[in-house]
Automatic annotation (TrEMBL):
PROSITE patterns: HTH_TETR_2. InterPro entries: Homeodomain-like_sf (IPR009057), HTH-type_TetR-like_transc_reg (IPR050109), HTH_TetR (IPR001647), Tet_transcr_reg_TetR-rel_C_sf (IPR036271), TetR_C (IPR011075). Residues 11-71 form the HTH tetR-type domain. Keywords: DNA-binding, Transcription, Transcription regulation. PANTHER family: HTH-TYPE TRANSCRIPTIONAL REGULATOR RUTR, TETR-FAMILY TRANSCRIPTIONAL REGULATOR. One of its GO terms (molecular function) is transcription cis-regulatory region binding. It comes from Actinophytocola xinjiangensis. It comes from the Bacteria. This is TetR family transcriptional regulator. Residues 34-53 bind DNA.
Amino acid sequence: MTTTRPGGRSARVRSAVLRAAGDMLAEQGFGHLDLAEIGRRAVVGKTTVYRRWGTVAALVADLLDEMAEESLPRTDTGTLLGDLTANARLVADTLTDPRQGPLFAALIASATCDERTAQALHQFYETRVAEWAPCVEQAIARGEVPAGTDPGEVIRAVSAPLYYRLLTTATPPDHTVADRAATAAAVAAERGVYVPAE
């Protein structure tokens, strides 16, 4: 459930608290999040934090909502490979960012043990996939990939290797890795791999 977006002082309070929560999550992980400490960091009374969010999971869900809203819009290069490469590089840049990389790793880890965080994370990625799916739809219209290609599956195929690298190695994905993931997804799409079997 999305939190109502207030203006004025409430908006400033929300921004400060979400920033503090993101910093703590990136630094210490989900298990160390504490509403009172987040309020202290944000210079916001803990009563305000507890009244507004109530639980750490609700606060993390709101943080993910904000991250989805602030994500950069998709790039339209005019070709599927160009669009997928832009998407892959955006994901790689996010995962290698000094703050965003650890933040996403912590969110993914927390989603394995907290249902509310898992739901919020799923919603975040549904939003991002929906943002980029039109590039596949445009590729279908241009005849680059077969009719019936599943846009969501193509977009997920681009990002999956990048997240896997983040979670399984000490080497974050760079643009070379991103370009390879985009090329693999584009070639597979062109060959009909993402057309659901009847």
